[in-house]
Every structure is written in C-alpha cells, then in structure tokens.
Amino acid sequence: MNNKLAYITGATSGIGRAIALRLAKNGYNTVITGRRKQLLDSLCEEIKDKYQTDVLVSNYDVRDRKSVEHAIENLPPTWKNPDVLVNNAGLAAGLNSIQEGNPDDWEQMIDTNIKGLLYVSRMIAPRMIQQGYGHIINIGSIAGKEVYPNGNVYCATKHAVDALTKAMRIDMLPYGIKVTQIAPGAAETEFSLVRFKGDKQTADNVYKGFTPLSGEDVADVVEYLLKLPEHVCLNDIVMTCLAQANTTMTHKKLN
To answer: pTM for the full model?
Structure first.
C-alpha cells in the first residue's frame, strides 16, 4: 500500500463522508469509521468504484473507549500508521435551556464530542510521533468560539474541542506533527436531523432562506490543508456561509 493513509471518524454521513470521498479522490487510502455499518459499507463501495483506492471499514462507537482501543490496536499492519487523522465524529442532541435540558443528551454530546475525540487521538498520536510526521484535523464548530441560546452543553463541548486543539498543537510541536481545527458554521448535513431527533420538518426549517455550508465545502478546506507546504500549518479556521456572520446572526430571505 503506497498511497498516503487517512483515518476518518464519523464517516457515515455529512462532513465525514464528504472528506472521505475527497481524500480518496486525491489518492489517499482511507480507514472510515462510524456506528452505522451499512452506510460505511456503501461508502466503501462508492470509493472503490469511483477512485480505485483502498478502503478499510471500522465499525464502532467513539464513545466506547474499549471499542476504540480494540479497533485501532487490531488494524492490519499496513493500516496502522495514518498520515492524517480527521476527528469528525460529533453531534448535537436537543436544544433546551440548561434548566430544562436532558442529562442523557448532555452525556451523549460530552461522550461523543470530547471523549470520543480524546480516545481516538490517544491511540493515533503516538503512531504519528513514532513515524515522525502526520496531520491531526479536528472538526470543531463556530459554537466552540461563541455561544447561542439553548446551545449550552453543545457549545461547551465544542469549546472543549477548541481548547484541546490548541493544547494538541503544543504537545505535537516537538514532533513535527500538524494540528488544525476547522470550525464550520451552519452546515446542511444530518446535524439538525440528529439534534431534533428525527423531526425532519423542524430540521429542514433551520436552513430555509439561505444557502448553508455543505460537507463538500468543508472537504475543500481539508483538501487545501493537505496540499500546503510541509513548513506551513493553519492552526484554526472558522468558516461560515455568506449569509451567516456568527452563531446568532444569519440573513434569511423568506417569502
């Protein structure tokens, strides 16, 4: 296996799926991970058909530390040392004030957005250090820079990703490993559908009246990052659609 290797979490849909396809298009072999095996298998076949690169499906939940450790420890020899790690797995659950929040939603977000990123990074980073190169890309959120009404715990988890990315950049500095955060604003993926627990009408209303980001837009940025010279590292990238200024101000054209 001579191509570069990328390890992508949360590859079943949205941003993670778009990144996996884009990196395969650019000649990367990919390890694609996620909870929904059927979607991973479908993506695997699409990549092989379109780009003829190698793909390995790894089906687990990043919230389960033992599953993360088992999956990465048992990668086949030629798949053990990624050049790129994309920590994309993440979600929002619910949209409530803190006094009305559901603790089960809080735990799901904390376990996925923070602990899942930590579990995967803890397994991959030492391998990058050993090989002497690599690039860790954390998919954060504009919600990690600001807060918005009823976003409390989700915003807190993405603020944690922001802090962890800065800390990881310091930790990886002596080893020549790049660390970048991409913090997208409103992006039309499964994000709102998951947040509103399958309520498609409510989820669709979030994006009415403007053109949000897409997974492909974020994949464009990842592609650019990986083509930069070896001595250049973009540490932190906040990206929004044209209609969005921050977490609370979006210009919508509604009839």
So the answer is: 0.95
